[in-house]
């Protein structure tokens, strides 16, 4: 055992669901596990994605031996197109299935030709500097999911990736109990383990149970069946396509992301069905309703996803009609409750029968283990130190309590924050420093150019709207002319003309007062904003954004007039 310490640096995934990214560092070598994205909070207006902050990795990119990908979900691979170039294009190690999904993402950003990707399997062994890396297969909800074993002179680190223990899975093998146990018997310094379902007792449901429930609903449906689920939940898509084939229904796919993942699965024979089982959505109307099954994105009530557009009547080819059976085969992500309820209401008003109690009715099984799965993983690995990952802080603390309940020393459980540099040796652990790790926001084509000031402005605009004040100012005459008020998202001008007139009068008085005081243009604008802001808050208790546009003219006449006045006074 070396005297050197190993460093574990979570750059994401320990204060949120998503943005999974962990750096394992020994001496001058770094191995990165996953580079995922997350989705914005409700108050991060206009933000598309959230990705890990890689400043530390950029400063140390010459040390990076490679990026290990545990599986193909976006919260583990989605940030690659945004960071791979800044990291100097290190080699990516991923399963065949993961590589195909990564390829789609990189091609969209025209980066595929620059990237070096190597296929690995659960039998692969890699040697790079001080690292010896191997893998073990886990059941999740997408093919070829793997955990990672990293052996270093300082000890062995095990990262589970996302996992569950399902002894009757569909379209993927059972987790490799034997290999996990063998690794544990050889001694493990630290285990990093999936905490997603740390508050759920028992074992997660088997996919076989979900299959039987879904098949029963489809068999009994007299009209069309529309199923919404996560586009990356390939195990569920496989089940539904199999059920459609067994019940004599054609399959239509609504949602680009779902189309892409099914295309990869068919290319690699994870979904092996005839081409004529699928039908374009524009051709559905030519089929009897009881011969149609539609797979759709939008189980979380997302406004622009296929199911929500169908419910509103905004979809180009599909809509909801009386007699449809709609299944929401996904658990509700915390914070999406109202969106999902609104979707259910819209579907019901259109006459659809909606099945949506996903976990109560066995319509959905999580790909993440519950408490008993988590205990089993800990007992198989037998780590000296335990580091929960992949979850909100409360999830991590709960997982740490579970670890303690099966014998892990409480002093050896480490609940980390983003950017913590955890230093480990065989005897102790400590966090001596912290690296910058605040997540980076992606908005359109911009990466990292959205900060707190911009988000604050967007929040103000979203909540209160904007009032624009424009005026022409005759500096020499010391008066404002052509004062105009524009309101957007604040009040409707035609029904609040009195308030609009008072805004204009307040602005006019402020302008003329400031001109007399020889104020600068900036001072005039600031004073207008303050006086109008006070008026509006007093009248409405709202705080819209106030923008002032001034056209100052006759400045020279004012200066000449002032000089003449001073000259006369001097004489």
TrEMBL record:
GO cellular component, one term: cytoplasm
GO molecular function, one term: RNA endonuclease activity
Cofactor(s) the record lists: Ca(2+); Zn(2+)
Keywords, alphabetical: Calcium, Cytoplasm, Endonuclease, Exonuclease, Hydrolase, Metal-binding, Nuclease, RNA-binding, rRNA processing, Zinc
Subcellular location as annotated: Cytoplasm
Co-factor note (free text): Binds 1 Ca(2+) cation per subunit. Seen in 1 crystal structure, it is not clear if it is physiologically important. Binds 2 Zn(2+) ions per subunit. It is not clear if Zn(2+) or Mg(2+) is physiologically important.
Residues reported to bind Zn(2+) 1: 71, 73, 75-76, 140, 162
EC number per UniProt: 3.1.-.-
Residues annotated for Ca(2+) binding in this entry: 46, 48
Residues engaged in binding Zn(2+) 2: 390
Source organism, top-level taxon: Bacteria
GO biological process, one term: rRNA processing
Chain sites annotated for binding substrate: 364-368
Residue ranges annotated for the Metallo-beta-lactamase domain, each copy included: 18-214
Family: Belongs to the metallo-beta-lactamase superfamily. RNA-metabolizing metallo-beta-lactamase-like family. Bacterial RNase J subfamily.
Assembly description: Homodimer, may be a subunit of the RNA degradosome.
NCBIfam families: MG423 (TIGR00649)
Name the UniProt record assigns to this protein: Ribonuclease J
Organism: candidate division WS6 bacterium OLB20
Source species taxonomy: Bacteria, Candidatus Dojkabacteria
């Amino acid at each position: 055992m070396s005297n050197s310490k190993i460093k574990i640096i979570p750059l994401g995934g320990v204060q949120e669901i998503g943005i999974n990214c962990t750096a394992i560092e020994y001496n001058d070598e770094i191995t990165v596990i996953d580079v995922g994205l997350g989705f914005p909070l409700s108050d991060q207006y206009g933000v598309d994605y959230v990705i890990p902050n890689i400043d530390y990795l950029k400063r140390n990119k010459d040390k990076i031996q490679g990026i290990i990908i545990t599986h193909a979900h976006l919260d583990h691979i989605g940030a690659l197109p945004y960071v791979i170039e800044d990291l100097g294009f290190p080699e990516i190690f991923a399963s065949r299935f993961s590589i195909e999904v990564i390829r789609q993402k990189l091609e969209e950003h025209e980066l595929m030709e620059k990237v070096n990707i190597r296929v690995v399997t659960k039998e692969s062994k890699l040697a790079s500097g001080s690292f010896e890396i191997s893998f073990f297969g886990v059941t999740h909800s997408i093919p070829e999911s793997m955990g990672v074993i990293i052996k270093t002179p300082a000890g062995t680190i095990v990262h589970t990736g996302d996992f569950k223990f399902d002894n009757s899975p569909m379209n993927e093998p059972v987790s490799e109990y034997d290999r996990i146990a063998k690794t544990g018997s050889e001694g493990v310094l630290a285990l990093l383990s999936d905490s997603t379902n740390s508050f759920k007792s028992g074992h997660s449901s088997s996919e076989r149970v979900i299959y039987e429930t879904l098949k029963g609903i489809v068999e009994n449906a007299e009209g069309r069946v529309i199923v919404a689920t996560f586009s990356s939940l390939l195990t569920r898509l496989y089940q539904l396509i199999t059920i459609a084939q067994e019940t004599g229904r054609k399959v239509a796919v609504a949602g680009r992301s779902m189309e892409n993942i099914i295309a990869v699965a068919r290319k690699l024979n994870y979904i092996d069905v005839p081409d004529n089982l699928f039908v374009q959505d524009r051709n559905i109307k030519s089929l009897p309703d009881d011969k149609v099954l539609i797979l759709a994105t939008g189980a979380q009530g997302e406004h622009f996803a296929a199911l929500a557009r169908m419910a509103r009547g905004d979809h180009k080819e599909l809509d909801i009609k009386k007699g449809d059976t709609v299944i929401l085969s996904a658990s509700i992500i915390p914070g999406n409750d109202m969106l999902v309820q609104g979707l259910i209401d819209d579907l019901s008003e259109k006459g659809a029968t909606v099945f949506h109690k996903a976990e109560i009715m066995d319509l959905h099984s999580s790909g993440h283990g519950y408490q008993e799965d988590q205990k089993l993983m800990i007992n198989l690995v037998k780590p000296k130190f335990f580091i929960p990952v992949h979850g909100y802080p409360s999830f991590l603390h709960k997982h740490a309590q579970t670890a303690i309940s099966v014998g892990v020393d409480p002093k050896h459980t480490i609940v980390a924050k983003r950017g913590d540099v955890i230093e480990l040796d065989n005897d102790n652990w400590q966090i001596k420093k912290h690296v910058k790790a605040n997540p980076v926001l992606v908005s359109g084509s911009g990466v990292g150019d959205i900060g707190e000031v911009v988000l604050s402005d967007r929040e103000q605009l979203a909540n209160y709207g904007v009032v624009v004040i424009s005026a022409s100012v005759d500096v020499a005459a010391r008066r404002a002319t052509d004062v105009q008020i524009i309101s957007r998202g604040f009040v409707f001008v035609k029904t609040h003309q009195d308030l609009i007139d008072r805004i204009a009068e307040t602005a006019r008085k402020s302008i003329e007062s400031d001109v007399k005081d020889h104020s600068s243009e900036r001072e005039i604008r600031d004073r207008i904003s303050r006086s109008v802001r006070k008026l509006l808050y007093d009248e409405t208790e709202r705080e819209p954004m106030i923008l002032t546009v001034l056209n100052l003219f006759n400045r020279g006449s004012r200066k000449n007039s002032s000089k003449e006045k001073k000259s006369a006074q001097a004489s």
